[in-house]
């Protein structure tokens, strides 16, 4: 079987969830992994990623990038693997490399802006969001913009960006949370609390919601309720450093 046919068969198997079948197909054609082409390494990396073997997935995708440095999909997948591992600085770098190949790839600028925000590069996150918005209204871009502006102390502008996002996606939990966080930054604790209560009533689960609900309650001098929110949040997400603090 020709190499391209093998790659297609392995990728089809992986997409169906037949991870073992995908791996067997690749190993039969390339028993020595060092001889595997970039696309084969990519498929095997995604098999490992699906198996939650993150470090192996990362090394394989790095090898795919090294083998085919101009392949856009390897660099995007590398960024996604790094983001999943919470290495957002490295993810931002991987997405930046991908953008140098194709700035118009759908979702790529958003992924880059989000990674920049999560690694604390708020100015670059703002620029990425504004670049994406030049292409047209986009709730995800407005959300990243709101987060980046809030982190830079521009709370009123952050609220305006969140409001624009909500106009486009009124049921989106992330943009609703961003609006609540901006209100909290502006000292409008009661309005912020109403947002977080609504999200919880909808069953939305995220450590940031419990954290900011506690902050809103503390801002309203409801200390015992704030402690209860922090305590419950910390119980649900024991690895979350901010809640534990």
What structural keywords apply?
single chain, 245 residues, mainly alpha, 15 helices, elongated
Low-confidence segments: none
| Helix percentage range | over 70%
| Helix run count | 15
Number of strands: 0
- Characterize the biggest β-sheet: none
The SSE order reads HHHHHHHHHHHHHHH
Mean pLDDT: 96
Over all CA atoms, what is the radius of gyration?
21 Å
The backbone outline, from C-alpha atoms, is elongated
Tell me what portion of residues adopts beta-strand conformation: under 5%
SSE class: mainly alpha
Compute the separation of the termini in Å: 57 Å
Please tell me about this protein's structure:
Helix content is 76%, strand content 0%. The protein contains 15 helices and no strands. It has helices at residues 3-15, 19-29, 38-50, 54-67, 72-84, 88-101, 108-118, 122-133, 139-151, 155-168, 173-185, 189-201, 207-219, 223-236, 241-244.
Chart the SSEs and their pairings:
Blueprint: H1 3-15, H2 19-29, H3 38-50, H4 54-67, H5 72-84, H6 88-101, H7 108-118, H8 122-133, H9 139-151, H10 155-168, H11 173-185, H12 189-201, H13 207-219, H14 223-236, H15 241-244
Helix pairs in contact: 1-2, 1-3, 2-3, 3-4, 4-5, 5-6, 6-7, 7-8, 7-9, 8-9, 9-10, 9-11, 10-11, 11-12, 11-13, 12-13, 13-14
Brief sketch in words of this structure:
The protein is an all-alpha fold and 245 residues long.
């Amino acid at each position: 079987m020709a190499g391209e046919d093998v790659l297609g068969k392995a990728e089809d198997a992986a997409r169906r969830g037949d991870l073992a079948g995908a791996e067997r197909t690749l190993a039969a054609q390339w028993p020595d992994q060092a001889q595997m082409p970039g696309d084969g390494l990519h498929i095997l990396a995604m098999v490992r990623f699906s198996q939650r073997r993150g470090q192996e997935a990362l090394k394989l995708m790095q090898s795919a990038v090294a083998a085919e440095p101009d392949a856009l999909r390897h660099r995007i997948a590398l960024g996604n693997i790094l983001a999943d591992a919470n290495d957002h600085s490295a993810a931002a770098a991987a997405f930046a490399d991908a953008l140098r190949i194709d700035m118009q790839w759908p979702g790529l600028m958003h992924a880059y802006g989000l990674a920049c925000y999560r690694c604390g590069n708020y100015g670059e996150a703002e620029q990425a969001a504004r670049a994406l918005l030049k292409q047209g209204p986009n709730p995800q871009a407005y959300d990243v913009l709101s987060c980046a502006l809030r982190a830079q102390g521009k709370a009123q502008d952050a609220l305006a960006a969140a409001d624009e996002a909500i106009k486009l996606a009124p049921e989106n939990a992330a943009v609703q949370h961003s609006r609540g966080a901006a209100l909290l930054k502006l000292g409008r604790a009661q309005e912020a609390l109403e947002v977080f209560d609504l999200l919880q009533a909808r069953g939305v689960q995220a450590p940031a919601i419990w954290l900011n609900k506690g902050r809103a309650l503390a801002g309203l001098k409801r200390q015992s309720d704030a402690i209860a929110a922090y305590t419950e949040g910390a119980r649900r997400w024991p690895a979350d450093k901010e809640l534990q603090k």
